[in-house]
Structure formats: C-alpha cells, structure tokens
Amino acid sequence: MLETAIKAAKIGGEILIANFNSLAAKNFTRKGDSDYVTEIDKLSQTAVVEYILKRFPSHAILAEEAGGGIEGEDFRWIIDPLDGTTNYIHGFPAFAVSVAVEKYEAGQEGFGPIQAGAVINPLTNDLYYAEKGKGAFHNGRKITVSRCSEFRNALIATGFPFREKEYLDEFLNIFRRMFNSCSGIRRAGAAALDLCWTASGALDGFWEKGLSVWDLAAGCLIVEEAGGVVSDFNGKYKYLESGNIIAANPKIYPLMLNILSN
Fold this sequence. Notes:
Layout lengths: L1 H24 L4 H26 L4 E4 L5 E2 L3 E10 L1 H6 L5 E9 L9 E8 L4 E6 L4 E3 L2 E3 L11 E4 L9 H12 L4 E3 L4 H10 L4 E4 L4 H13 L3 E3 L7 H4 L2 E4 L4 H8 L2
Parallel strand pairs: 1-3, 9-10, 9-11
Antiparallel strand pairs: 1-2, 3-4, 4-5, 5-6, 6-7, 7-8, 11-13, 12-13
Helix pairs in contact: 1-2, 5-6
C-alpha cells in the first residue's frame, strides 16, 4: 500500500503543478482565488481517489473536499489533495499532497493505526514517506529526527488558529512561552510539511491546534517512523481525533508538552 500512497500523492501533485502557473499569472479577487483553488482541490482529489480505488476497490475513502467520504472495509485512505491552500494561491513554495491509509472497520469510533503515508511538495519534488515498522524516508534516503536536546537550541514550528480566531489570545500566550524558551519559531502554513521537516531533523518540533485528520495522518506516521514522538496536548494519542498535536524528537517533546499541557 505504500507504493500506492506514493504514486497517488505524485498524481495529485502533478495536477497542482499543472495549474500553478496559470493561477499565479492571473489577477483574481479573493473570492475568485477561493473558487479556483476549490476546483483544483477537486481535480487533485478526484485523480488521487480514482487511482487508489482502481487498486483497492473495497477500501474506504476519507478526503477533504465534498464527496470525499466513501464507505468500504478493512482499510481507509485519508487524503488531503492540497495542504497549504493560501500558500498555493500566493505562489509561496510550501504546499503539499498528503495520502495515508489506516486499518479500518466500518462504523468504528475514532481512527485506526496508520499503516502507510506519503507527503509530496510537488513544487520542490520533496517526497516523504513511511510504512509502519519500516522507517521513514525522504527522496529514498532514510531520515531520523534531530538530536537537539536543549530547548534553547531548538527550532520549532507552529500554525495560527485561522479557523478558530476566538483562540488567538490563548495561542499568543502559548507562543510567547515557546518563543521565550526556544531558539526560534517558524510558521510555513502547511502542517503536513511541518511534520515532515520535523521527521527529517530540519525542525526539532511542531505544535498546532484545531487541525483536520487529513492534515496529520501521513505526517504523523512519518515522524513516528523517524524516531519522533507524537501526541495531543494532554500527552495522549487522540491527536487524529482532536486535531491538537505535538510532534518532536524525544528530548524536545516533554519540554513542549510541559508548556502546552499547562
């Protein structure tokens, strides 16, 4: 199934790139931007889903765009056809396609173990992938999380709660505590890539609140297979359900958890 996840992510990425230059070349109103990208999301998602179902017609599908829920059995594919929509609109080179597959039973509560996942930034051709129990890779090279052990030396990433602006003050309080403790904070606007950068050691940790499962599923497996730790803000493993996530190397993780759990 890993090969299917990789190929599906590449197919979605090809569609994003095919439409990227035409999007950047035109002057859209904000509503026009939103409408156009929605169509590109749908094109990417349709192509990804069609590819997967040709190989596994009995599997279930959970995808971001409308119509992305298809019932099935045994396994369910979790798809984000475009993570980093605002970046894509503006030509900022941090957007991705994320494809993961979980062990699944129809009617189950919550999410099952993620079996495989792939994330691609099609603009840079950076491909990250992992299969449960078999390690994590970046463009064919095995990756591991960083060895940073002191928070004052750590580079971490986050995302702003743009969907839940009522939490901005709470976020800024946490941001201030993180900022005063670590070396630096980055905000790229694509959670799937933040997770992959954490897995590869480019970042020492990542946290964000209110994400969707398709933002997280592939990237979280990649972090874990690279030797990292992933949890929700309470140190539990319900991050796919809650959308609240901490991902970091084993030394930095408890330091981030201490801030976020308080």
